[in-house]
Amino acid sequence: MIALVTDSTAGLPPELAAELGARVVPLHVLLDGESFVEGVDIGPDEVAAALREGRRVSTSKPSAGAFLDVYEEAVAAGAEQIVSVHLSSAMSGTIASARVAADEVPVPVTVVDSRSLGMALGYAVASASEAVASGRSALATAASARERAEAASTVFYVDTLEYLRRGGRIGRASALVGSALAIKPLLQLSEGEVGPLERVRTSSKALARLEERTVEAAEAAADNPLGLDIAVQHVDAGERAEALRDRLRERCADAHEVRLVGLGAVVAAHAGPGAIGTVVSPRVRTTPPVIGAAAV
User: Fold this and answer.
1) pLDDT tens digits for 16-50?
2) Looking at the chain, which terminus has fewer C-beta neighbours within 10 angstroms, N or C?
């Protein structure tokens, strides 16, 4: 039996996490120094309001003890191995906590650095779940998660770079800070961190380019025989995100799904109110190939 673990930045609603058989270790949001558990004590709306009010907002990783509690719970439920899939180590020390806890568990734990977050991580967890359900080994399950995460394209728009800068999660996009007042930047996840993609003058043009970039990524993955999924993610920008989702459904009709997702409280703390992003996630093979099948 293989147990699957992820963290709250995957943005999986509780019912979807339960459907995937994934245990979720939450990160924390600090408001004016007081700690709140993501998805339990605080959500993205409260974070967006706090940012607009100018309150001190920061985030913190789970402790090794929090991971150990979840791992031991899985072992008590009969797990013989654990695959633990998490957000990029370039943006958080969550992976480090998971690895410390993994050394204390009496069963093998494979910790996967997805080099991603949000639904790029969520879809990686979904592929890992499919691999477990099909009887794959822990190593094959981890490989499915890595492959799905690596294949994903994540692009997003933020109203301001200030929240990324404050939180230290700005990565290579720091080159844009000096001109931040004059642009509405498009950013991407590249090599596990935030990087610059385009400089756009207005929010309407930025959202139009976000749409075009998403369609281009979907078209580039169109030859994937397993198909792809798309997610539109946002922080307190539901109407604009929903309109984008509807347009992408029309323009990317071959996608298995175009899902609308609110980003979690931790990601909201760094992206800020008004942020909108998309994930194009080609599916990967999670079942063993059929040996001796006739070529088509």
Assistant:
1) 999 999 999 999 999 999 999 998 999 999 999 99
2) C
H-state helical runs in the chain = 14-20, 44-52, 64-76, 94-102, 118-133, 138-151, 162-167, 203-220, 238-251, 265-271
Burial class of 181 by CB neighbour count within 10 A (0 to 12, 13 to 18, 19+): exposed
C-alpha torsion 236→238→243→248, nearest 10? 80
All domains of the chain in start order, with CATH? 2-27+62-150 (3.40.50.10170), 153-282 (3.30.1180.10)
**Which residues of the chain fall short of a pLDDT of 50?**
172-180, 290, 292-296
Structure tokens at 188: 């991407």
* Segment holding 190, helix H or strand E: strand 184-190
- What is the pTM (predicted TM-score) of this model? 0.91
Query: What does the block give as tokens for 208?
Result: 């139009």
Residues with Cβ within 8 Å of 117's Cβ and at least 6 positions away in sequence, in order, are 9, 10, 87, 88, 91, 189, 267
Number of Cβ within a 10 Å radius of residue 73:
13
Instruction: Using CB atoms within 10 Å of the CB of residue 164, give its burial: 0 to 12 exposed, 13 to 18 middle, 19+ buried.
Output: buried
User: With contact defined as beta carbons under 8 Å apart, do 103 and 110 qualify?
Assistant: no
Token readout for 249 is 């459904």
